[in-house]
């Protein structure tokens, strides 16, 4: 059987506002949690934004978006995933009225996408909670954020109801387990944050997400609103039953988040976890009914798989996309220690579809690497990134395999389609894009854009609806 992608498959790329827009105080924007995270997720936030925070300038997409969208159109993008910076719309997060200049920027951005026939896919909250909400309310620990988020969602749903069809409520929502400040705007240090407070904050996010689905469908019934989870297949390190049980328990920590979004209620295994850990989730009147407003599709990031074991002597944690795990002895790793497992993508897609029977959208997948800008035989500057082409090709073949398995897939957006600042490490040398941006970790560079070899490769993939992958 020949592998193929369905007609109308949404090919494109993905970014986040905080990692490329820059202009961190332009046109009324307030500070976000990202503005005080100059060194990524593994160091405490600063009191105020500092000059060594690469995200304050990013790649200056705020002023260069027309140039960049034109390059995406040249590749043939059908969809462009980005986020709206919450603090551009509500600078502090708790205002009653939005910032009109912020709304106008995204009007212009989405209009530019449509000029080239590109469908925006918009993340409502992508690791950029307004800093005021983190410091004044302790982020999502506070129930008041449900109302603030609902007001924000209603504002942008209403404003862009004829410009945006596809929406995601929270980016990698399950990452709050490891990084409560970045993911949930929770100012209480992780080591002092109790499980009760953490899971209550998660409940507040679930309610807000479901409320957004309800509000969005009321404003425009044609909206397609999805959740977004960090996916990471977990394999038993050995066939020992204890390893298998440990794997199941670890997997539940992540599956839980998609279960709530897709099914609309708390699963039994989490009720057991809450009971055994003395956690009592407080439901406000109406929460149970709100949660039943389930998502239209499941979207996810996929970069790697991990292993799990019950043997404490083998529980050596490797590097990974926010949620590390026990390394797999059969896999190679990227420059940042992320293990490369294309077949794991097919596995997780089948698992999601078997579990939920809802369409899937692969909204993040890519390879972060140190790229070298060179001059080719025509005198043009480029990057010979055959390693990225191989990585993406191997993963896209597995997407096609999953489609052949019967999995319904809406589209695929490669992460960091243009070089941007890393979320985990706040570096620019960790590059993902098809487009090289001349900016470096010391702040130097012209910000000029150059097409990498992968740019031309992905252009052909899209033009052939994936058939060039199988040549």
UniProtKB/TrEMBL annotation:
Query: Quick check: keyword Hydrolase in the entry?
Result: yes
Single GO MF descriptor: beta-glucosidase activity
Carries keyword S-adenosyl-L-methionine? Answer: no
Sorted alphabetically, the Gene Ontology BP terms of this entry are: carbohydrate catabolic process
Q: Which UniProt keywords apply?
A: Glycosidase, Hydrolase
Look up the domain of life of the source.
Answer: Bacteria
Q: Do you know which InterPro entries this protein is assigned to?
A: GH, GH_1_N_CS, Glyco_hydro_1, Glyco_hydro_1_AS
Which GO cellular component terms, listed alphabetically, does the Swiss-Prot or TrEMBL entry include?
A: cytosol
Residues annotated as catalytic? 364 (nucleophile)
Could you tell me which NCBIfam families the record lists for this protein? PRK09593.1 (NF007158), PRK09852.1 (NF007356)
Give the similarity note.
Belongs to the glycosyl hydrolase 1 family.
**This protein is called what?**
Amygdalase
């Amino acid at each position: 059987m020949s592998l193929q992608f369905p007609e109308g498959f949404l090919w494109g790329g993905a970014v986040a506002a905080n990692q490329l827009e820059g202009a961190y105080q332009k046109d009324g924007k307030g500070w976000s949690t990202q503005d005080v995270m100059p060194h990524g997720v593994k160091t405490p936030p600063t009191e105020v934004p500092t000059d060594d925070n690469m995200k304050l300038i990013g790649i200056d997409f705020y002023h260069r978006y027309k140039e960049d969208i034109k390059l995406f159109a040249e590749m043939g993008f059908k969809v462009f995933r980005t986020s709206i910076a919450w603090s551009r719309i509500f600078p502090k997060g708790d205002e009653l009225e939005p910032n009109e200049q912020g709304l106008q920027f995204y009007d212009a951005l989405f209009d530019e996408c449509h000029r080239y026939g590109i469908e925006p896919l918009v993340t409502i909250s992508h690791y950029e909670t307004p800093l005021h909400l983190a410091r004044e309310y302790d982020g999502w620990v506070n129930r008041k954020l449900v109302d603030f988020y609902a007001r924000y969602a209603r504002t942008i749903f209403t404003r862009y109801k004829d410009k945006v069809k596809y929406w995601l409520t929270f980016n990698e929502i399950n990452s709050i387990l490891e990084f409560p400040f970045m993911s949930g705007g929770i100012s209480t240090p992780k080591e002092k944050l109790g499980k009760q407070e953490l899971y209550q904050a998660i409940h507040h996010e679930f309610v807000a997400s479901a409320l957004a689905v309800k509000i969005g469908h009321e404003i425009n019934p044609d909206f397609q609103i999805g959740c977004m989870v960090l996916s990471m297949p977990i394999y038993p390190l050995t066939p020992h039953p204890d390893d298998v049980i440990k794997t199941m328990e670890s997997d539940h920590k992540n599956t839980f988040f998609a279960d709530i979004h897709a099914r609309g209620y708390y699963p039994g295994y989490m009720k057991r976890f809450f009971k055994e850990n003395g956690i009592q989730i407080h439901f406000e009147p109406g929460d149970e009914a709100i949660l039943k407003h389930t998502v239209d599709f499941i979207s996810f990031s996929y970069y790697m798989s991990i292993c799990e074991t019950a043997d404490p002597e083998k529980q050596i944690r490797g590097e990974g996309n926010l949620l590390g795990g026990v390394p797999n002895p059969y896999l190679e790793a990227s420059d940042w220690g992320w293990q490369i497992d294309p077949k794991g993508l097919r596995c997780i897609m089948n698992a999601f579809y078997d579990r939920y029977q809802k369409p899937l959208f692969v909204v993040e997948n890519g390879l972060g690497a140190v790229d070298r800008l060179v001059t080719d035989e025509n005198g043009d500057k480029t990057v010979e990134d055959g390693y990225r082409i191989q990585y993406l090709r191997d993963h896209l073949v597995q997407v096609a395999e999953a489609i052949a398995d019967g999995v319904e897939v809406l589209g695929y957006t490669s992460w960091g389609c243009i070089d941007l600042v890393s979320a985990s490490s706040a570096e620019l040398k960790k590059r993902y894009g098809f487009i090289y941006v001349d900016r470096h970790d010391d702040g130097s560079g012209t910000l000029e854009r150059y097409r990498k070899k992968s740019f031309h490769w992905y252009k052909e993939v899209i033009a052939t609806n994936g058939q060039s992958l199988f040549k």
